[in-house]
Design a protein that fits this description.
seven-stranded mixed β-sheet, single chain, binds nicotinamide-adenine-dinucleotide, 483 residues
Length: 483
């Protein structure tokens, strides 16, 4: 594959190899074939990356925001020019169809670089007048950031963390998921090609231990994790030990409520986007679909009809709209939940089977008559398994929608304007959708409430999580003291 990175790590502006680390095979999910091997970072590689990040940060933080922003925006342009190659690599890394990767991954990464590149010049403190005296605030970088990624959006996650970190004058060491290690290396390569000084964006590979070593290192000032709630607990606790800043983008089991007056075609589109895009491997998915009993059967039969038109197959074929799951492990987790769904009494109305072959393909799967206590309604599956639950009353469905440890996203489909906003206000979730689902533009804050996370990515809100304020008190006259 022509577009592959040339070594495991990217440190201090260059590819670095160290075959002493544990080998990690990179598997193409559509065929099960090994397409690359990277090596987990040894203690020496971790040290090199953190030292480079520490050494480079001060000069970068001292540059003007305009200068920093220009480099990020140039990187965004290069990403867009290479969208095809980057999308092919993303498809190899994740198995997601090219139909998706060509519009949702490098493009989303480029949006983040462009957005934060654009606002870097406008980052300011404020002036606070206190009579004759005054205070001014300086918005300063945090220092060295560590980013740790999940495997579902490797390019996007590398950019969503890197772009605001760099815009604010920080350096970053990014550890991709061991399942999808390739794309972040290309992000590092492009940033440096765009003029980023060496040492500011480093990539090291490895499993959880490498992430843990980064989080606990005293040279690190901030940790941003995208991952599951159990990993979030560990990383948050380790960061707390060093009183480090954190952003936690964790899991979800988000509700989507379809009222009886909803436009059914739109609601089904939302349910498809919120359950089957990326083969269901999206953190904000609306996997608990509450459908009013008046329209339940119409909803289910039309949903089945539309699922029948999914084009399942070779992810590189631009016609393919549904690809494999990322790994055998993830496929087995989803299959396990399908068995639990059946055993706990849910009605399987679509799919439910692995698709025979070498790749990790699972049919889009829908359960109806799901009740709130079932495992498939309570636990994050992270696969193409939709649960449809019945409801009749708004207050009742709101209470049930919010009865979860998670709070990442939520959606409502209705034509009643007042109800839509009333429901959105009551959702205990960081990102809510009215008559749409899973949009994630860089201009809007993204993140979770409750166990789904801490902090926000994207938008101006991310600036608060990658910079800190210093207050400077200025006295104009003499200073009085008690003695
Ligand atoms: P995971 O929690 O298994 O791993 C996430 C990352 O953490 C990986 O890079 C892993 O190597 C690393 N890690 C594991 N243990 C660690 C430790 N002790 N210290 C430091 N790092 C450690 O998650 P995953 O299976 O890669 O991804 C799926 C999960 O991510 C799902 O729960 C999904 O909802 C969540 N996710 C959330 C968002 C979001 O923005 N909220 C986006 C995508 C995925």
């Amino acid at each position: 594959m022509q577009t592959q990175p040339t070594a495991s790590h990217f440190i201090n502006g260059a590819y670095v190899e160290d075959t002493n680390g544990t080998p990690i095979d990179v598997i193409y999910p559509a065929t099960g074939e090994k397409i690359a091997t990277v090596y987990a970072a040894t203690a020496e590689i971790i040290d090199q990356a953190l030292s480079a990040a520490r050494a480079a940060q001060a000069a970068w933080g001292a540059m003007t925001g305009t200068e920093r922003g220009r480099i990020l925006r140039r990187a965004a342009d290069i990403m867009r020019e290479r969208n095809h190659d980057l999308s092919v690599l993303e498809t190899y890394d994740t198995g997601k169809p090219y139909q998706e990767t060509s519009v949702a991954d490098a493009t989303s990464g480029a949006d983040a670089l462009e957005y934060f590149g654009g606002i870097a010049a406008g980052l300011t403190g404020e002036h606070i007048q206190l009579g004759e005296d005054w205070v001014y605030t300086r918005r300063e970088p945090l220092g060295v950031c560590v980013g740790i990624g999940a495997w579902n959006y490797p390019t996007q996650i590398a950019c969503w963390k890197g772009a605001p970190a760099l815009a604010c004058g920080n350096s970053i060491v990014f550890k991709p998921s061991e399942t999808t290690p390739l794309c972040a290396l290309k992000v590092a390569e492009i940033l440096h090609e765009a003029g980023l000084p060496a040492g500011l964006y480093n990539v090291v590979q490895g499993m959880g231990e490498v992430g843990a070593a980064l989080v606990t290192d005293p040279r690190v000032d901030k940790v941003s994790l995208t991952g599951s709630v159990p990993t979030g607990r560990k990383v948050y606790a380790a960061a707390a030990e060093g009183i480090k800043h954190v952003t936690m983008e964790l899991g979800g089991k988000s509700p989507m409520i379809v009222f009886e007056d909803a436009d059914i075609e739109n609601a089904i589109s939302g349910a498809i986007l919120g359950n089957f895009y990326s083969s269901g491997q999206v953190c904000s998915n609306g996997t608990r679909v509450f459908v009013h009993t008046d329209i339940k059967e119409a909803f289910l039969s039309r949903l089945a009809e539309r699922l029948g038109t999914a084009v399942i197959g070779d992810p590189m074929d631009p016609a393919t709209s549904f690809g494999p799951m990322v790994s055998k492990r993830q496929l087995d987790i989803a299959l396990g939940y399908i068995e639990k769904g059946k055993a706990e009494g849910a009605r399987l109305v679509y799919g439910g089977n692995e698709i025979e072959g070498d790749g990790f393909y699972l049919q889009p799967t829908v359960f109806a008559d799901v009740t709130d206590d079932m495992s498939i309604a309570r636990e994050e599956i992270f696969g193409p398994v939709m649960s449809v639950l019945d409801f009749t009353d708004e207050d009742d469905v709101m209470a049930r929608a919010n009865d979860t440890e998670f709070g990442l996203a939520a959606g409502v489909f209705t034509r009643d304007l007042a109800r839509a906003h009333r429901v959105a206000a009551k959702f205990e979730a960081g990102t809510c959708y009215i008559n749409t689902y899973n949009d994630a533009p860089v201009e809007a804050p993204f993140g979770g409430m409750k166990n789904s996370g801490v902090g926000r990515e994207n938008s101006k809100a991310a600036i608060e999580h990658y910079s800190q304020l210093k207050s400077v008190y200025v006295r104009m006259g003499d200073l009085e003291a008690p003695f």
